[in-house]
Specification:
Helix content is 12%, strand content 43%. It has an eleven-stranded antiparallel sheet with strand order 6-5-4-3-2-1-11-10-9-8-7, with no helix packed on it. With 206 residues, it is mostly beta strands. It starts with a helix and ends in a 15-residue tail after the last strand.
């Protein structure tokens, strides 16, 4: 026997409301795309897998003026190696490779592969997951995002994770293929810049 039209209508509406509720829950679970601070500093560990290079040191980021600086720290197993620093002045299109011990400095145009990109979640990135970094109850929550190669303006794939509260980066992987990729870990960060002069090349940089 067929159900009365009124009963069929009520069942259909109930199913529709359930679907809408599930959709609303799914949307609510996707965090709002946060905005990374314009200026902050900290330490990083960066592996350039294509070049076989590992850099560990401090960094300063100035998104307002499109500047970035890194100072290498002494690493275990590299005794005697002089500390190096790098300054990227993107608006001028110049980077400096500084040997602080020998007081030498080389400048050159910033390569196209290292052109300016504001740190943060790209506009066309897709949300992947939200999870606790570290031990539950002791760690902190991060959101992970990704951008497929076809979405990237240069055909690279990008994956990054950011803290929920301050939206600073924690991990980042950029690669065009398995042998040509860069993995970066960020830690010990603080907002603002303690030394804005870190972006000024030494006097022996000509």
């Amino acid at each position: 026997a067929r159900l009365p039209l009124s009963l069929c209508f009520r069942e259909s509406m109930a199913k529709l409301l359930i679907l809408l509720a599930l959709a609303a829950v799914a949307v609510a679970q996707i965090p709002i795309r946060c905005k990374t601070p314009a200026q902050f500093e900290g330490r990083l560990s960066r592996w350039d897998h294509g070049q076989g290079e590992h850099f560990v040191g401090g960094f300063s980021y100035d998104g307002e003026n499109e500047r970035f600086a890194m100072v290498e720290q002494q690493q275990a197993g590299k005794t005697g190696s002089p500390p190096h620093g790098f300054i990227f002045l993107y608006k001028a299109g110049i980077m400096y490779d500084i040997d602080f011990k020998m007081r030498k400095c080389a400048s050159k145009p910033i390569p196209e592969t290292q052109s300016w990109r504001a740190w943060g979640i790209p506009d066309n990135a897709t949300f992947v997951d939200e999870y606790t970094e570290g031990v539950l109850g002791e760690g902190f929550v991060v959101s992970e995002w990704q951008m497929q190669a076809w979405q990237h303006p240069k055909g690279w794939m990008w994956v990054g994770s950011f803290t929920l509260n301050e939206c600073v980066p924690i991990h980042e992987v950029v690669f065009s293929n398995v042998s040509d990729s860069i993995t970066t870990h960020y830690y010990d960060m603080s907002l603002g810049l303690t030394d804005p002069d870190v972006f000024i090349p030494p006097s022996y940089c000509k």
